[in-house]
Structures
1.
Amino acid sequence: MIYSRPPSFAPVDQGDVFDDCPVAQFESIPDPNALEAEFTSQLRRVYVLTQACDLIQRKVSSVVVAQVLDADQLVATSVLKAADVRGPVRAGRVHGWYFLPKSSSLGLPESIVDLRTLHTVRLELLVDLCRAGKRIAHLESLYREHLAQHFANTYCRIGLPMPYETE
């Protein structure tokens, strides 16, 4: 089984999926003289990327999360074609997007973890979301490590400014 549903008292872990996680986004460049910056806050489905060892040993107070998007909505809004979801995204050939299969029992649609849209949230906020029943799933071992490897490859790849010239 690819997913499980941890009890609300289980500690936050890498691979957890949360609903209604508030994430902030700056709307404009803040004025250096202003006391407050303009930003919006939205409730999003997110996937926990921070390493499990750091979470369990409480070495972090902030957690890196990635947005989880409904694949059907991406197709409906023409961000992706259905064939791309079934083909290169599902096969892991698109840097920055990771496919998650549907789980009827957990109410999860086919989804894409957008590894290019990252947020940092307080660990205590996620603990509160656990208590509120907003942790909806946990991606099990091997699948979780596979996603972590895809995340690492997204950011560690080295792109050349132009292809090699040939004679």
Note: Helices lie at 52-56, 71-76, 82-89, 123-131, 143-156.
2.
Amino acid sequence: MRFIKDLLFFELNTTGPDLDKDNVIQLSAIVVDKDNLLEKDFFNTYVRISYLDSLLLAHSKLLQVEYEVVKKSPKVADAVKLFHGKFNPGQILLVTHGTSNLFFLKAMFKKVLVPFDYNTHAIDLWTLGYIYTLNYGIKKMPSFHTFIEYFKLKQKQPADALEKVRLEAEVFRKIIKEV
């Protein structure tokens, strides 16, 4: 199957699920070629949302990375500018496993006054997965872990958004190949 634009799969790690009080602390993405669905480029950054040592330490534990990595990571504004500068919004289509990721990403952009000029008609992997499970008789809820197990993929670092986004792209490839 060919797509009109390259696909930008993105994944976030946040401090929690509440868009109003929680923050993105890791932003990862890969660009997948529209014709062959192979990875062309990637982006990965941790996001420093505080200068308080206690919060940085808590975030490093949540992300399962060294404290110094989080301490040296870019602030939200810099992370958003790096992400936005890396991917041309007019040449990609966003792909994520759920709408909450899209809302968190848009909120990051809004917080630092960078226009969110990506097409908001994103491919929702959860919906695609739900349809797939109905058609292929999988008797489990179509979660990330259901597909990792079903397609016999290995997740080595569950807290790493870059690894997760690459696995999501692999699940997508396998679903597209079969349908």
Note: The first helix runs from residue 53 to 63.
